[in-house]
């Protein structure tokens, strides 16, 4: 390659985004004949001056390096943006840098420093594409899944292809070859073996039930679910809540409208109707900001105080409607 390359990958479709990173990784390996030395940073966890210093120093042990800067949307301070832009304008040879964000955009000054051809937004899949993805997954594995089976998976699993791949892969371990994958089978093996999730936690939050929300949180943490995964699930739910509140404000809402924003199941619709009684659009925007801040805070603190800080966080977002 000879010169450094910079990429900006934004958007909530984690699975396709990870596939794009994997494609770049394989391209680097093919060019150099070996996998690159790979490092990930989270904005807010490592001082940006240290991060840029590491980027500018070549590796002693590898001929190629791959750096990922995650939560890039959190880069807002002028001095930090300017510092990273200065590196992007003169990248280190043999270093590939990928800035990653679950949001669809970053600071405009940062965005402008990436070549247009190296910027991608990974949009959340439309409902029909999620349906096709699930049907295709089971077909490739030698199974046929029914329409109600697909709808049940979409109700139980976080709606990005990374989560779908993980949970569908787990589900096929329990299936009999030749038997159709129905709603009953999905509920038996996914719902019953995964009784609590970020979605059930959101249901408790939507109800304003602090005691049950904390209980669900502790069940998840006790089952080794990472706080970051819980926050990612809640982030998805609150983005859907924002879309739902926006729809309601515009006028009558149809079933098609709800399906377009990922709320096809009756249970999901009941949850969001309940949450809409407690949260305004401004409150949801505030919660989404708090979710990003909490993710950074947890990574900075380490694992020891996870349960306590998450308890406080859940209390904060259940109580937030009182102040917005």
Describe it for me?
The chain is built from 15 helices and five strands. The protein has about 325 residues and is of the alpha/beta class. The chain has three domains: about 5-120, Rossmann fold; about 125-190, Helicase, Ruva Protein, domain 3; about 200-324, Zinc Finger, Delta Prime, domain 3 (Up-down Bundle). A five-stranded parallel β-sheet has the order 2-3-4-1-5, covered by helices on one side. Helix 5 (about 125-140) packs parallel to helix 7 and helix 14 (about 280-300) packs antiparallel against helix 15. The model has no long low-confidence stretch (mean pLDDT about 85).
What is the gist of this entry?
Helices cover 58% and strands 9% of the residues. With 324 residues, it is α/β, with parallel strands linked by helices. Strand 3 (65-70), helix 3 and strand 4 (95-101) form a beta-alpha-beta unit.
Write the layout of secondary structure elements.
Layout lengths: L4 E6 L3 H19 L4 E6 L5 H9 L8 E6 L7 H12 L5 E7 L6 H4 L7 E3 L5 H14 L6 H10 L4 H11 L11 H9 L6 H10 L2 H13 L4 H24 L4 H6 L5 H11 L4 H21 L4 H14 L5
Parallel strand pairs: 1-4, 1-5, 2-3, 3-4
Helix pairs in contact: 1-7, 2-3, 5-6, 5-7, 6-8, 9-10, 9-11, 9-13, 10-15, 11-14, 14-15
